[in-house]
Design brief:
Structural class of chain A: alpha/beta
CATH superfamily of chain B: HUPs
CATH topology of chain B: Rossmann fold
Number of helices of chain A: 2
CATH class of chain B: Alpha Beta
Helix content of chain B: 25-40%
Largest interface: A-B, 3 and 5 residues
Distance between the termini of chain B: 66 Å
Order of helices and strands of chain A: EHEHE
Shape of chain A: globular
Oligomer: heterodimer
Strand order of the largest sheet of chain A: 1-2-3
Largest sheet of chain A: 3 strands, parallel
Shape of chain B: globular
Order of helices and strands of chain B: EEEHEHEHEHEEEEHEH
CATH architecture of chain B: 3-Layer(aba) Sandwich
Mean pLDDT of chain B: 93
Radius of gyration of chain A: 12 Å
Number of domains of chain B: 1
Strand content of chain A: 15-25%
Number of strands of chain B: 11
Number of domains of chain A: 1
Number of strands of chain A: 3
Low-confidence stretches of chain A: none
Strand content of chain B: 25-35%
Structural class of chain B: alpha/beta
Mean pLDDT of chain A: 90
Largest sheet of chain B: 9 strands, mixed
Distance between the termini of chain A: 23 Å
Low-confidence stretches of chain B: none
Chain lengths: 73, 250
C-alpha cells in the first residue's frame, strides 16, 4: 500500500495542514508520496523536500494550477 | 431553465442527539426530523432565482426512506414546483447519493444544481463535489453569492482568508454556505398548496446504480466530558501544576 498526499499551498509556501496530513499518513504507512500541483511553485517543492517523512514528491508546475481549481486537478 | 435542489432529511438542529446504548449509531427513535438547514438555503436560492425570472422550474429531490416525503412537502411549501423521492430503506453514503442524483440530473436535464455544502448529521461535505466529478460539471462550493450572467453563473465563494469569485459555464453545481441567504418560512396557504403539488416516488433499484457501502460505521460515542477547573492558591502551586500535571513547561 502507498499513500498519496495532495499538498495544500499558495504557490509560495506549504500550508501547515499538509504537515498534519503527512503526519497522519505516516501512522498508516511509511511510503508517502506528495503531489504538489501549482504554478511557479518551486519554493513549495523545496520546502516539502525538507520534510523527512515524505519519500517521494511529484511536482506538476503549470499555469492551469495557478488558482487551484478542483476541476483541473 | 431548470434548477434541481437535493434535500436531506436530518435530525432537527435543535435536538440534542445521543448515541444508542450499544454505541452502534445515533439514537433516532422519536426524534424530530427536518430539512437539513444548508439544503433550505439551497432551496431558498433556487426559488429566488426563479422569482427573479431567471428560471422556469425548481425541482426538489431527496434520496431516502418514505418518511423523506415530509421534507419534500416542506420544500414544495417553500417554493419548489415539484418533487422526486428516490426511495430506499438503507442509509446511503455520499457516493451512492451522488450516483443516484447524477442519473436523475441526466434525465431531467437540469441547468443548475444547488446543494447544501454539507448535512448537519454526517458533516461529510462530499456530495456536491462527488456529483461534480461524476457529471464532469463545473462546481463552486461554499457559495455566499450567486448571480446569473447569460449562460454562466458568477459565484462568490467563502474561502480561507477571503472571498473568491468564479465564473461557471452551465450546467453547473453550486453548494451553499450559511451566509448565502436567509430562508423564508412556509406560509399556511403555501403549505396547503404543497399538498397538491406533484411528488414522484422512484425506487432506487430502478436507477441501476451501485449503492453498496464503501465504509462501515464502527461506533458512535459522546465526546469526553470536560472536568471542572480548579483555583490555585499561589503562583508556586500554579507552576507546580503546569510542570507536573499538565506537563506544558519543564
Amino acid at each position: 500500500m502507498s499513500i498519496l498526499v495532495i499538498a495544500e499551498h499558495d504557490n509560495n509556501n506549504l500550508k501547515g495542514a499538509t504537515l498534519n496530513t503527512v503526519a497522519a499518513a505516516v501512522k498508516l504507512e511509511k511510503e508517502i508520496t506528495l503531489l504538489v500541483a501549482g504554478s511557479e511553485c518551486s519554493s513549495v517543492v523545496s520546502e516539502a523536500q525538507s520534510v523527512d517523512s515524505i519519500s517521494k514528491i511529484i511536482s506538476v508546475d503549470d499555469s492551469v494550477y495557478k488558482n487551484f481549481i478542483a476541476e483541473d486537478l | 431553465m431548470k434548477i434541481l435542489v437535493p434535500i436531506k432529511r436530518v435530525v432537527d438542529y435543535n435536538v440534542k442527539v445521543r448515541p444508542m446504548a450499544d454505541g452502534s449509531n445515533v439514537d433516532l427513535n422519536n426524534v424530530k426530523m427536518s430539512v437539513n438547514p444548508f439544503c433550505e438555503i439551497a432551496l431558498e436560492e433556487a426559488v429566488r432565482i426563479k422569482e427573479a425570472g431567471n428560471a422556469d422550474e425548481v425541482i426538489a429531490i431527496s434520496i431516502g426512506k418514505t418518511e423523506s416525503q415530509e421534507q419534500l412537502r416542506t420544500a414544495l411549501a417553500l417554493g419548489a414546483d415539484r418533487a422526486i423521492l428516490v426511495e430506499t430503506d438503507s442509509l446511503l453514503e455520499p457516493l451512492a447519493i451522488s450516483k443516484a442524483l447524477a442519473k436523475i440530473i441526466e434525465q431531467e436535464q437540469a441547468d443548475i444544481i444547488i446543494l447544501g455544502k454539507q448535512a448537519i448529521d454526517g458533516d461529510n461535505n462530499q456530495t456536491g463535489q462527488m456529483l461534480g466529478a461524476l457529471l464532469d460539471y463545473p462546481q463552486a462550493t461554499n457559495a455566499s453569492e450567486v448571480n446569473i450572467d447569460g449562460s454562466s453563473l458568477n459565484v462568490t465563494r467563502e474561502i480561507d482568508g477571503g472571498l473568491q469569485t468564479l465564473k461557471l459555464k452551465m450546467p453547473a453545481i453550486v453548494t451553499t454556505d450559511l451566509r448565502l441567504n436567509e430562508p423564508r418560512y412556509a406560509s399556511l396557504p403555501n403549505i396547503m398548496k404543497a399538498k397538491k403539488k406533484e411528488l414522484n416516488v422512484i425506487p432506487l433499484s430502478d436507477l441501476g446504480v451501485d449503492a453498496a457501502p464503501r465504509t462501515e460505521l464502527l461506533s458512535v460515542e459522546l465526546p469526553p466530558s470536560r472536568e471542572a477547573g480548579i483555583i490555585v492558591e499561589t503562583v508556586e502551586e500554579l507552576v507546580d501544576k503546569l510542570k507536573n500535571e499538565a506537563k506544558v513547561i519543564s
